[in-house]
Structure formats: C-alpha cells, structure tokens
Amino acid sequence: QKVTKSAYSQITQFGMNEAVGNVSFEQPQQGEMVFDKPFSEHTAQLVDEEAKKLISNAMDRTIKLLTEKKDLVEKVALRLLEKEVLNREDMIELLGPRPFKEKSTYEEFVEGTGSEEENTELPAGLKDWNVDREKKSAEADTV
C-alpha cells in the first residue's frame, strides 16, 4: 500500500514522470469525499500505467540487488540473529567502507545545493548549539 501510494504521489502530486509531465494535480484531503478526479479518464489510465511501471521496475531492481548481494545480505542477517541492533561500525565491518565519502557536517550536506556565493554557515542562533553539551561531556570525563 505504501509503495503504491508513493508511486501515485510521485506521478500526480510531485510531477516526477515524463509521460504525465511536470504537473501536480490537487489531492483530496484525508476523509474528504471525492466525486470526480482532477484529470481526464485518459490521464487516469496513463497514471495507472506509469505507476504500475514504476512499481514493477522498483521490484525488479530490488530482486536484482538482493540476488547480486545475497552473500552480504546473509552476513547481515546472521549478525542480526546474534545482535538485535546493528550500528554503523557493525555495518562497516560486515560490508566494508562506503564507496563514497561520508558527509558529517551541515556544510558538507548543503555543499553544491545553491549558488557559488551561497553562505553555508549555520544561522547565528545555532552556531554554538553543541558547545554546552561538549563542555558538560568534557567535565564529566574529568570527574
């Protein structure tokens, strides 16, 4: 149900489909009675076809990935039988380091998302958001 809802939202709400186009159709609110669609029957058929295609392609890709990475999936599954929760270090031990550089700061996450002159500094009110926590942590370590 979630996959189907997501596929239809991508197509009708977020305009993320070439065949239907970059359009957003008004969505009914939860509990609202719907008597007619905000698009034609032809468009409704196209949306249904595109959603089915999207879901089918995602399923095929998922099965392919799980098949190709079966040994790694089994490693993770076996570890989960030993340990209920896996953390980052467990995953690196099992799967190896990520194939890309990890981002850990706000500046790294927003880098390249705006113009060249973009200011990626934290807002003034958030600049020292973790200073008190770091001081308390350092004080606790010395006690």
Features:
single chain, 143 residues, mainly alpha, 54% helix
Average pLDDT reading: 86
Q: How many helical elements?
A: 6
Distance between the termini: 53 Å
- Note the beta-strand portion: under 5%
The total beta strand count reads 0
What pattern of helices and strands is seen along the backbone?
HHHHHH
Radius of gyration: 23 Å
Main β sheet profile: none
Name the shape in a single word: extended
Helix content: 40-55%
Give start-end ranges of low-pLDDT stretches. Answer: none
Q: Which structural class should the secondary elements be placed in?
A: mainly alpha
Plain-language structure description:
With 143 residues, this protein is mainly α. It is 54% helix and 0% strand. The chain is built from six helices and no strands. The chain has helices spanning 2-12, 41-68, 70-82, 88-95, 106-110, 131-142. Helix 1 packs across helix 2. The mean pLDDT is 86.
SSE blueprint:
Elements: H1 2-12, H2 41-68, H3 70-82, H4 88-95, H5 106-110, H6 131-142
Brief overview, please?
By secondary structure, the chain is mainly α. It has 6 helices and no strands.
